[in-house]
């Protein structure tokens, strides 16, 4: 009975009493020799889904993973449990890989970890063809997606497995699961026959908070000091420079922080990562180069000082918090500059139009999450096609933002942009709205405009929030070629004519959270 065998491996080898979620069904399905696509959030227990079938079926289970740096640890952990595991990758010397090949031939290995580039070498493929293979597990399968930042070209070539080993079950696993990535995995890995196992993507212990950015670093410091003094956390920044600066800033302000980005040499990166895994009061400030496969259960917060490029990225990065199930925070500071900067990076990239279009769409979904006046979690899960109800554990649930009909404010803004002939940037447009008699206003005689001073009722900061939301709603764009001038889009017209009303998120004054004071 395969079921009994699987349960006995779970209990006797891994020491767990029962399967969690879909694990049992997936294990059964693979033992029976079928293909599967497994979508499970980080920390839910993907590994057992292929480890146990590999041990129950005859032959060696081949695990394809891009995380070369972690293979040694994974194999060590399995060996400690008495599982016969090994890995093949480029860090090994010839002697070592020779001896592993011998063990494979004599059938004394149940699980073999291999990097995709190594697997695809003709030598490795013919080695595998001479063996009895129990299954192929393709871990981090979203690496096959060209749209994600984890794209690995070799992953696309993994379709060769289906051609060379048509009878061997294959399972692809990932924690990234928007519909497009899912479809791409199925298509590129030729998993049309695979059954999909989709777990809930909710991470109820994570509290989502997105604050309006005014001084990001100071807000971050407040957040850490008030909510997470002495905790392990990750702070994501867009650029290497900002990673370094933020680490310095935190250290100067009494928070232990280390930098991590691809520009550091390998030894420093490895040392910083090792310290982060070992110590419990360290903050890693990092680019997105840091994180995939980092299995540290007690990361208490993940903070973003810059806007992620997509909701998948945000979900994946914030998902590194609270893997132990205890309360954790996903905190982000977000502002107008983020929208402008990210749109600009896409616009100015070398990519073709189709690629740019996809990137813009993904970014807009991310901006939508920042601007939503509904529950963040509902919005986030909805992006992954999962329905849910208001969570009570995100900033919009805990402190519902004031949503107001913003049509009038937007009309004032849009018509001012029109009257300054779409040639001026945000600061000046706001000056005109607020009736500020600046030098530039004088110079261009903008005090004569009919919209001069029609926006005195709200502050400059509030106007910035209105501009940001106008850009987020694609009513305005920024002309990067001409001093970041604000330009009207096609979508501005119906708002100006009063044919479309738009709700705006009102500027948030500092509030207290239940736990302690929070910086927004
Ligand atoms: P993922 O790869 O999905 O991020 P892992 O496979 O690393 O997750 O598992 C996350 C944690 O959950 C590990 O510490 C693992 O030992 C534990 N775990 C997995 N399955 C079970 C189970 N059935 N019962 C208890 N703990 C489990
Ligand atoms: Zn909520």
From TrEMBL:
<dbReference type="GO" id="GO:0043138">
    <property type="term" value="F:3'-5' DNA helicase activity"/>
</dbReference>
<dbReference type="GO" id="GO:0006281">
    <property type="term" value="P:DNA repair"/>
</dbReference>
<dbReference type="InterPro" id="IPR044876">
    <property type="entry name" value="HRDC_dom_sf"/>
</dbReference>
<dbReference type="GO" id="GO:0043590">
    <property type="term" value="C:bacterial nucleoid"/>
</dbReference>
<keyword id="KW-0238">DNA-binding</keyword>
<dbReference type="InterPro" id="IPR002121">
    <property type="entry name" value="HRDC_dom"/>
</dbReference>
<dbReference type="GO" id="GO:0009432">
    <property type="term" value="P:SOS response"/>
</dbReference>
<keyword id="KW-0547">Nucleotide-binding</keyword>
<keyword id="KW-0233">DNA recombination</keyword>
<dbReference type="InterPro" id="IPR011545">
    <property type="entry name" value="DEAD/DEAH_box_helicase_dom"/>
</dbReference>
<dbReference type="InterPro" id="IPR036388">
    <property type="entry name" value="WH-like_DNA-bd_sf"/>
</dbReference>
<keyword id="KW-0413">Isomerase</keyword>
<dbReference type="GO" id="GO:0003677">
    <property type="term" value="F:DNA binding"/>
</dbReference>
<dbReference type="Pfam" id="PF00270">
    <property type="entry name" value="DEAD"/>
</dbReference>
<dbReference type="InterPro" id="IPR010997">
    <property type="entry name" value="HRDC-like_sf"/>
</dbReference>
<dbReference type="InterPro" id="IPR018982">
    <property type="entry name" value="RQC_domain"/>
</dbReference>
<feature type="domain" description="Helicase ATP-binding">
    <location>
        <begin position="27"/>
        <end position="195"/>
    </location>
</feature>
<keyword id="KW-0378">Hydrolase</keyword>
<comment type="similarity">
    <text>Belongs to the helicase family. RecQ subfamily.</text>
</comment>
<dbReference type="GO" id="GO:0005524">
    <property type="term" value="F:ATP binding"/>
</dbReference>
<keyword id="KW-0862">Zinc</keyword>
<protein>
    <recommendedName>
        <fullName>DNA helicase RecQ</fullName>
        <ecNumber>5.6.2.4</ecNumber>
    </recommendedName>
</protein>
<dbReference type="InterPro" id="IPR004589">
    <property type="entry name" value="DNA_helicase_ATP-dep_RecQ"/>
</dbReference>
<keyword id="KW-0347">Helicase</keyword>
<dbReference type="Pfam" id="PF00570">
    <property type="entry name" value="HRDC"/>
</dbReference>
<dbReference type="Pfam" id="PF09382">
    <property type="entry name" value="RQC"/>
</dbReference>
<dbReference type="GO" id="GO:0030894">
    <property type="term" value="C:replisome"/>
</dbReference>
<keyword id="KW-0067">ATP-binding</keyword>
<keyword id="KW-0227">DNA damage</keyword>
<dbReference type="GO" id="GO:0046872">
    <property type="term" value="F:metal ion binding"/>
</dbReference>
<dbReference type="GO" id="GO:0006260">
    <property type="term" value="P:DNA replication"/>
</dbReference>
<keyword id="KW-0234">DNA repair</keyword>
<dbReference type="InterPro" id="IPR032284">
    <property type="entry name" value="RecQ_Zn-bd"/>
</dbReference>
<dbReference type="Pfam" id="PF16124">
    <property type="entry name" value="RecQ_Zn_bind"/>
</dbReference>
<dbReference type="Pfam" id="PF00271">
    <property type="entry name" value="Helicase_C"/>
</dbReference>
<keyword id="KW-0479">Metal-binding</keyword>
<dbReference type="InterPro" id="IPR014001">
    <property type="entry name" value="Helicase_ATP-bd"/>
</dbReference>
<dbReference type="GO" id="GO:0006310">
    <property type="term" value="P:DNA recombination"/>
</dbReference>
<dbReference type="GO" id="GO:0005737">
    <property type="term" value="C:cytoplasm"/>
</dbReference>
<dbReference type="GO" id="GO:0016787">
    <property type="term" value="F:hydrolase activity"/>
</dbReference>
<dbReference type="InterPro" id="IPR006293">
    <property type="entry name" value="DNA_helicase_ATP-dep_RecQ_bac"/>
</dbReference>
<feature type="domain" description="Helicase C-terminal">
    <location>
        <begin position="216"/>
        <end position="366"/>
    </location>
</feature>
């Amino acid at each position: 009975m395969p079921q009994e065998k699987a349960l006995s491996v779970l209990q006797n080898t891994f020491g767990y009493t029962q399967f969690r979620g879909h694990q049992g069904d997936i294990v059964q399905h693979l033992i029976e020799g079928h293909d599967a696509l497994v979508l499970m959030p980080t920390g839910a227990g993907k590994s057992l889904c292929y480890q146990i079938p590999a041990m129950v079926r005859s032959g060696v289970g081949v695990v394809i993973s891009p995380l070369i740096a972690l293979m040694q640890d994974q194999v060590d952990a399995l060996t400690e449990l008495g599982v016969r595991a090994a890995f093949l990758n480029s860090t090994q010397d010839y002697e070592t890989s020779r001896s592993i090949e011998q063990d494979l031939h004599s059938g004394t290995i149940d699980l073999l970890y291999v990097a995709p580039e190594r697997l695809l070498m003709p030598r490795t493929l013919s080695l595998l063809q001479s063996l009895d293979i129990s299954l192929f597990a393709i871990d981090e399968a979203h690496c096959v997606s060209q749209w994600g930042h984890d794209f690995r070209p070799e992953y696309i070539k993994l379709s060769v497995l289906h051609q060379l080993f048509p009878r061997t079950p294959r399972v692809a696993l990932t924690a990234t699961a928007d519909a497009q990535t899912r479809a791409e995995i199925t298509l590129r890995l030729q998993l049309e026959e695979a059954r999909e196992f989709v777990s809930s993507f909710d991470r109820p212990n994570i509290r989502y908070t997105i604050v309006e950015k005014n001084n990001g670093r100071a807000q971050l410091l407040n957040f850490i000091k008030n909510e997470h003094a002495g905790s392990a956390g990750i702070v994501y920044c867009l650029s290497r420079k900002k990673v370094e600066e933020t680490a310095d800033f935190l250290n100067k302000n009494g928070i232990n922080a280390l930098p991590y980005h691809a520009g550091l040499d390998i030894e420093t990166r490895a040392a910083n990562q090792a310290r982060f895994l070992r110590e419990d009061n360290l903050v890693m400030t990092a680019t997105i180069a840091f994180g995939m496969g980092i299995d540290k259960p007690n990361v208490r917060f993940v903070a973003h000082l810059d806007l992620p490029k997509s909701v998948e990225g945000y979900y994946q990065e914030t998902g590194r918090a609270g893997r132990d199930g205890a309360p954790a925070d996903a905190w982000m500071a977000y502002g107008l500059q983020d929208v402008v900067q990210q749109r600009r990076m896409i616009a100015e990239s070398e990519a073709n139009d189709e690629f740019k279009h996809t990137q813009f769409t993904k970014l807009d979904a991310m901006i939508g999450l920042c601007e939503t006046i509904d529950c963040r979690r509902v919005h986030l899960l909805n992006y992954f096609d999962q329905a849910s109800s208001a969570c009570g554990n995100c900033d919009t649930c805990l402190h519902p933002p004031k949503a107001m009909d913003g049509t009038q404010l937007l009309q004032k803004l849009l018509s001012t942009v029109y009257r300054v002939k779409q040639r001026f940037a945000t600061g000046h447009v706001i000056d005109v709205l607020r009736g500020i008699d600046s030098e530039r206003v004088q110079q261009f005689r903008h005090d004569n405009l009919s919209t001069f001073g029609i926006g005195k009722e709200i502050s400059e900061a509030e106007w910035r929030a209105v501009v940001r939301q106008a850009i987020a709603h694609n009513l305005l764009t920024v002309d990067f070629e001409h001093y970041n001038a604000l330009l009207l889009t096609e979508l501005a017209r119906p708002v100006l004519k009063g044919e479309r009303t738009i709700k705006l998120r009102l500027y948030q004054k500092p509030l207290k959270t239940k736990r302690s004071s929070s910086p927004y």
